[in-house]
Amino acid sequence: MSSAGSTPQFxxxxxxxxxxxxxxxxxxxxxxxxxxxGMTACAKCxxxxxxxxxxxxxxxxxxxxxxxxxxxxxGCALYAGxxxxxxxxxxxxxxAVGWLIGKAMKAGSGGIGGRRYQIVAVVLTYxxxxxxxxxxxxxxxxxxxxxxxxPALIGRILYYGISSPFTELSNPVNGILGLxxxxxxxxxxxxxxAGPKLEILGPxxxxxxxxxxxxxx
Length: 217
Prior knowledge:
Elements: E1 3-4, E2 7-8, E3 12-14, E4 32-36, E5 39-42, H1 43-52, H2 58-86, H3 93-109, H4 115-131, H5 133-141, H6 145-148, H7 151-167, H8 172-192, E6 200-205, E7 209-211, E8 215-216
Helix pairs in contact: 2-3, 2-4, 2-5, 3-4, 3-8, 4-7, 4-8
């Protein structure tokens, strides 16, 4: 970058001749060129990259939700089943639940991600882990599901499940550890459903001095 004193100037950007080669097709740059995630690319390759970017849509989002709900149900069942069968309470299973939901949603959307996908993934991960406490508690209390599914009790059961990560703070050490692990599981789901990181800047002119990017994707 050119400079005046110690203040960076952003009106022009300089590139060495060694950079004026498309990093994809390896052909010398001529005319307009672009930068894709910081790497130079010819106009043809930049257009191809744009064309390969998955396009978000309502059907893709709805399909991702369906896949995510299925993964949440499966994750909840695995979490509860493991605890019931082994009598070992391992909060780290929530990491697998977050991973499962994130992967399922990304598969359902066809690789599309973004903020709304991330929000759904976070909610589903939390519900899957927290509601797993319900069948665990039912098994521990020795009560049948048919009795507890009484309409008068359903609200209390849902509240018990959703609030379980926080009510477990009655045991500070285990409660805090459980919340930390749950947060990590949620973080995994959040990262897996993020949108593709792709920045296309340009066009620039293929010369020793290029102007500021005129468009960005």
